[in-house]
Design a protein that fits this description.
The complex is a heterodimer of chains A (about 260) and B (about 200). Chain A has about 260 residues and is α+β, with helices and mostly antiparallel strands. Chain A is built from nine helices and six strands. The two termini of chain A are about 35 Å apart. In chain B, strand 4 (about 150-155) and strand 5 form a beta hairpin. The chains are: A alpha+beta (about 260), B alpha+beta (about 200). At the A-B interface, helix 2, helix 4 and helix 5 of A face strand 2, helix 5, helix 6 and helix 10 of B.
Chain lengths: ~260, ~200
């Protein structure tokens, strides 16, 4: 569906949601996106050129239901909020069908107009919708201005790059710790270097960064530890990952470059 | 090699009682705004240069006027509580071509609306946003948090102690605002909305 693709990037100003009549009972909705039920409602009211203070509720309700029906058919997930609005509309419509209390029949017709609350919400919403348009404009201008590139200073380069020697120190510390531990020989499950690399990569992708000593500590045997160490070296060499040490002698992290 | 010139420069830089011509001050202010990573405020400039705030403001105005006068490609902007030197928006195409960048992803209609509600109603809770927008805003809030345009501002002392949100400094930067008071009043949009 190339057309849908085209409208995926929604331009706030030039592209309004639009319902295009394409056939007899085949309406097609070209929706950038209705931001919500109030948005859709406002759109329908404008489409009908109705007065917001005197909404032809039966007509608008029908249109509204028609549209969300259509949205369903188009497999656009019709969120619960759209359905809540539908229920609200139907409620208002039914209230308006009720005969008015003759005693309250004064010239103050809209004294307790069931539409009033909805109108208030629509007006309130519309203000923020317009404000959103203003923000959009501002950010567009803002994105078109550039400041100079950042200077290389110590401050913005606070991450001390860890060297292989730092790595080695961490490794040695952990080896030392391992030696002190009571060894329980379990049936050895060999893990190959490539498996180890894959495991480490997976971890980095998943978490964004991996604490190296934590990773080493998980290793159950000397052999695994060595494999893990080589895997770490290998992964850094491939340059998809950076070694980062936030302070001298601090923890070394593997971070996605 | 002795270099008396550099010595002079050094002593001038730390001088507490400044004897600068207005032109020199303008030049210094320009230099500091240029090197500052973030928008630099009047107070900081005044402290560093040992000048009155008023003098700094006058210098910035003068500088700004000079840029305009000679139709510079640069402009002085007041943003997020400080001054900044930036390119003029009309050159964005050429600059993007050079930097090989594209405008970053636009916020969706829903996210912009949510942001507007938060900007005007802050601190505001999720249910309050729902009330105005008539639609769940969880995804938008997450997007805005991820983009650091909004921040959590503590919990509201109400049933369920809901989290409140407000806009961040990044919001000011990304929307080119001096401070929140620079946002047009929400009531102004009433007429605007009615006229559409």
């Amino acid at each position: 569906m190339t057309e849908e693709q085209e409208h995926f990037s929604f331009d706030f100003h030039t592209e309004r949601p639009e319902i295009v009549a394409a056939g007899r009972d085949e309406l097609r909705v070209r929706i950038g996106d209705f931001a919500g039920p109030l948005d859709l409602l406002l759109y329908l009211i404008k489409q009908e050129q109705a007065n917001i203070f005197d909404i032809p509720i039966a007509k608008i309700t029908a249109k509204y239901l028609e549209t969300i029906q259509l949205m369903k058919r188009l497999d656009i997930a019709v969120a619960a909020d759209f359905l809540v609005m539908a229920a609200t509309l139907i409620e208002i419509k039914s209230k308006m069908l009720l005969p008015r209390d003759p005693k309250a029949e004064d010239e103050e017709i809209d004294f307790d107009d069931p539409r009033r609350e909805l109108v208030d919400r629509l007006l309130e919403y519309e203000k923020f919708k317009t404000a959103a348009g203003m923000l959009h404009e501002r950010t567009t201008i803002e994105q078109a201005t550039f400041t100079r590139g950042t200077l290389e200073t110590d401050e913005n380069n606070s991450e001390v790059d860890a060297t292989v020697f730092d790595l080695l120190t961490v490794f040695q510390k952990i080896v030392a710790r391992h030696i002190e531990e009571v060894k329980m020989e379990i049936e050895r499950e060999e893990i190959s270097l490539s498996d180890m690399i894959r495991a480490l990569e997976g971890r980095i992708v998943e978490f964004g960064e991996v604490n190296l000593s934590g990773f080493f500590e998980e290793m159950r045997s000397h052999r695994e530890l060595v494999t893990a160490f080589i895997a770490a070296l290998e992964i850094v060499r491939s340059e998809a990952v950076r070694l980062v040490q936030n302070k001298t002698f601090g923890e070394i992290l593997l971070r996605r470059a | 090699m002795e270099d008396p010139v550099s010595e002079n420069v050094e002593s001038a830089a730390v001088a507490k009682a400044p004897a600068r011509t207005p032109g020199e001050l303008v030049a210094l202010v320009e230099a500091l705004i240029f090197v500052s990573e973030e928008p630099i405020g009047t107070k900081l400039l005044a402290d560093i240069l040992g000048e009155e705030k008023g003098a700094i403001q006058a210098a910035v105005e003068q500088l700004s006027a000079e840029y305009v006068e000679r139709s510079s490609g640069l402009q002085i902007r007041e943003i997020a509580g400080g001054y900044q030197i930036a390119t003029r928006p009309e050159f964005h195409e050429e600059i993007r071509a050079f930097l090989k960048t594209r405008p970053s992803a636009k916020l969706s209609l829903a996210s912009l609306e949510t942001l507007a509600v938060i900007a005007y109603k802050q601190p505001v809770t999720v249910p309050e946003i729902l009330e105005i927008r008539g639609v769940q805003s969880a995804t938008s809030i997450k997007t805005l948090l991820d983009k650091r345009l909004i921040v959590a501002k503590g919990r509201k002392e109400a049933v369920g102690r809901p989290m409140q949100y407000g806009t961040s400094k990044d919001f000011l930067l990304q929307f080119g605002l001096k401070d929140l008071s620079e946002l047009p009043s929400i009531e102004d949009f009433e007429d605007l909305a009615a006229s559409v």
